[in-house]
Each structure stands twice: as C-alpha cells, then as structure tokens.
Structures
1.
Amino acid sequence: MTVRAGRWYAPGAMGQQDRPTVSGGHGDPWVAFSYLFGGMAAYGGIGWLLDWWLGTGFFVPIGLLAGTGGALYLVYARFWRFPGNDASSSEPDGGHDRDERRGDAG
C-alpha cells in the first residue's frame, strides 16, 4: 500500500474494480439539455434586453426561437452529424488501409 494524495491506495485492489468510463459527453442527454436551455436562456435574455431597451415586445419570442434553433443545430452536430472526433473515421476502413489502396507500400 502506498499513499497518494492523502489516501491509501492498493494497486491490486483498484485495478480489479470496474471504473466508470468517460465518453467525453457524446451521447449524454444532459449535454443536449444544457445546449437547449442555454440557447433559450441566452438568446431569450438578449431579446428581453432589446425589448426593454427599445420598448418593443417581439424580440423575446425571436430570441427564444433563434436560441432554440441554434441549440438544435448544436445537438445535431454533436450527436448525429459528427459522431467521432477522428477525421479518418468517415472512411469505410477507418483510414487503416490507405497506403494499400493507393499502392504505396511502406
């Protein structure tokens, strides 16, 4: 046993436990919720400020719609359109056989 950051750590015991995996936010519904809520709050707030400043009453709904639309695009781009961060993942073989297809050997 060793001490790390003020806690006792047994390497054998910790290595056998299931550790939670971090997916980087891909597939997490709270990320989608935060995009939707944040977009509506930010652009709705800007619309409210414009309505208050200009004495109108139509910038809040425009801001809410614009924020929702932008948030839906971000959710689409994050979860459906660009699922992987690897640029070569769009190729059928993942980019591994690139040299063999061109005829370039090593």
2.
Amino acid sequence: MAHQTTDSFPSPRSTVPDPWDVVAACAPHLCIAHQSAGRVRLRLLAPGIDAAAVRRADLERLHAAFRAMPGVRELRINPLARSCLIAYDRELIPDTAWPDLFAQRRTPAALALLGLLHTAARACGLSPTPKGDVS
C-alpha cells in the first residue's frame, strides 16, 4: 500500500513557532533545581518521560545547540537524573535570565537569553529559519 500524505498536519518545518510559545510549552516540565553565580541546573519534571525514552540523537542536537550558544561555557546533561548543568558567562547571560525565562516574565534578561537560545537552535537545525531571516 502506498503511503498517502495529508494536508491536515503541517510539516514541522512549515511554520516558525514563536519562541515564547515554546517556553510556555516547556516551562511546566522544567524547573531550576539549583542556581549559583554563573551556573544553573535544570531538572525535567515530567514523570511520564523515562530516561530510556530520550533518544541519544536528540540529546546530541540539544547539546550542540547549547554549546553553540554565546555565553555557555560548559554543558553537562545527565539523562538518568533528568538534569542539565549549564555554566555560563554572566556578562552575556545575567543570573536573573533563567528564573525570568521559566516564569515567562518578558524582562530584558529573559529576552536576551531567549534570543541566544533561539539563534543557537536555528544554527543547529532544531528550529526552522524563516525565509529571508539571516540572523
């Protein structure tokens, strides 16, 4: 039987998601487990997602996106603990950016962090680039 396509579901690359919509969708599933100057540990709260369900290719792409992000000095992902440690340059990413972003507060710090994340994700192929967008 031939595979049929349908127009009822858009291609993942057919639309560009608003970065704040992505944050709104992710925020309930992530929390800041710990933060100190220049370091933040994020924890995945979704109990229905076990570590075996996280595909290695996705982790590698996520790792590449964060490593491509200006200001990130170190990234350690621990799938078994469902956590991610990020060491960052406080000159580029203020400490207030992380809690503001996850609380969906559109502060200058959160907007700067979101911009860096979005640019790095697009550079690594994790987010579509709109036509004509060269940033």
3.
Amino acid sequence: MSEEATGLAIQEKDGSLTFPVRVVPRAKKNEIVGVEGGALRVRITAPPIRGKANEALVEFLAQALGVRKRQVEIVRGQRVRNKTIRVRGLSEKEARKRFGNFTTS
C-alpha cells in the first residue's frame, strides 16, 4: 500500500465510506494523481458543465474501486472542485488497497 493512499482521510460508518476528493476537470485523461491534504486528487477529462464532470467522476471512481456506479455518490460539493464522496458496500481496508494501486508511482 502506498503512503499516499494511507494519507487519504477515509471515514467508515454504517457500511459506507466517505472521503474528500479534489477534482481537476478538462484533463488529458481520467486518472488518480495522488493524495493532497487528505483528499484524493483526481483528473477528469469531462468539462464542469451541466454535471458532466460529476458524472464522469462517479463513473471513474466506481471503475477504480470495482463497484457499481449506483454505489458511488457525491454527497457534498456538486458545483465545486472539492467534493465529499460516499461509497456503499466497500470496507476502508479494501478501498485503501484499491486506491493504492493507482497512487503508487
């Protein structure tokens, strides 16, 4: 597990996880670039117009974590780059392991 993945501020409660995400829209490719200030930093190709970046973020995180899109939701920050994400049905340990695969250099 990478140090970056362990620096992610994940909270586990009632069968779901919440964690902060910092989104960079209009990137060249969808990717997790690390952890910054306790938040997962994610680049998304979609523009921040009419919720397209949010939709792309949910889809990308679901794929990265190996869960269904309906298990991932944005609970705070619909219109800003700093967001809080909730993922249902995944343990903190498993999430850190899966994010570690992306944040390891």
